Amino acid sequence: MATPPAKSAQDLPDSIDVAVVGAGYCGLSAARTLARRGVKVAVFESETFGWGASSRNGGMVLTGMKLPVPTLIKGYGREAVRKMYAASLAAIDCVEQIVREENIDCNFSRCGHLEVACKQAHFDGYEESAALVKREFNHELRIIPKNELRGEIGSDIYFGGMVDETSAGVNPARYVAGLALAAQRAGACLYDHTRVASIEQETNNGARKFCVQTSRGAITAREVILASGAYTTEATPALRKKIIPIGSYIIATEVLPSDLARELSPRNRMIYDSKHFLYYYRLTPDNRMLFGGRAAFFPETENTVRQSAEILRRGMIGVYPQLRDAKVEFVWGGTLDFTLDVMPHAGKLDGMYFAAGFAGHGVAAATWFGMKLAGLICGDPNDIPFDGIKFPAAPLGLRSGNTWALPLAGAWYKILDFLT
Ligand SMILES: Cc1cc2nc3c(=O)[nH]c(=O)nc-3n(C[C@H](O)[C@H](O)[C@H](O)COP(=O)(O)OP(=O)(O)OC[C@H]3O[C@@H](n4cnc5c(N)ncnc54)[C@H](O)[C@@H]3O)c2cc1C
Prior knowledge:
It is a single chain. The chain has 10 helices and 18 strands. By secondary structure, it is of the alpha/beta class. Strands 1, 2, 8, 9, 10, 11, 17 and 18 form an 8-stranded mixed beta sheet that branches. Strands 5-6-4-13-14-15-12-16 form an 8-stranded mixed beta sheet, with helices on both faces. The chain starts with 14 loop residues before the first strand and ends with a helix. The structure holds flavin-adenine dinucleotide.
């Protein structure tokens, strides 16, 4: 039976130590850590707990970052990237530890991920990537040549693959629901259907505080954490102009016969392909094929969800002709928080703590960044390797609330996929 959702707190106190905007992995993980360390914390969520990307994603708990390692090293230097990569591994451990400590029933499993090469040139690059990752981070990736790929995936369209056994899978909605309950048990006050409308900084006799206006009334807070991801609103304009909200869509088939499911994904990996405009897919524990992609770049609407269902079904059959007759029973969309440099960022903006830019790595990263921001507030040394790296604003037309140029970005990535 599904775990009952966390109940919303009712009365709003006049003041609190820390106000958190957004009840996804980031906000709830921060709240859990703060409450466990004796800090009074309130989380404000304009919809229901976990309503944003945290309940809608593919549940892939992945190592590394979105950008390839050579690009990262070129941009940030060897030492910084070693710390970033180590953080990506620590983030998965962090999810695993929370799931274990809080006894969250969310099918967390270290099943590993498989990247599949859409072109021979992509596969040719895997050898070098694996050697670099081994040399720089002492982390093992395994190359799967095309003639062995059937042991990993029931598809013949790829040129080979690369496996990372450290990655994991999780039921994302159950995980975020469990995280909400865990934060609440630790003593955090969670408010659903409570929109933060504005945040003003005030200084009184040298003491600084924030006045947070919510749809339930005003509250003052010593510190604020912005954990609103791709759904960041005009309430926090400095953060909003840095975020590029990109739609991603998922279909799920009917429950498949177990021998067919085993043929499609014999080792139950989290799978994604090597394109920019990529497909990602996996089996669910009840043997549905869950197949996602950036079928439309726009954030989700009824229209984009409907169109995406058909695009994704065609994509799925392209990979797995065996699923030609499988019924698609579910389709949904959500919005990812990208940044212009495709990096996660954390630190302070307008005096408030924030973390964002997790893109397709947010299950682990958002959890870890939330915990780390809480640590900073409690006085821990700052060891977040992403804090302090340059954080460029998104160009007009790609920003949250003003996304007219997103289809152009989508077209650009399709051209890149054709050319590279
Ligand atoms: C379809 C899809 C598939 C994905 N697949 C994967 C995957 O397989 N693996 C992976 O690692 N990542 C994946 N991601 C990304 C991952 O889900 C996100 O990076 C992660 O959930 C971000 O968590 P968060 O807590 O930062 O933000 P969110 O979970 O988006 O939470 C932000 C919350 O803030 C609330 N909010 C915003 N503004 C306000 C306000 N003013 N007042 C009150 N509340 C506010 C929103 O309602 C929202 O609930 C996927 C995302 C999508 C959409």
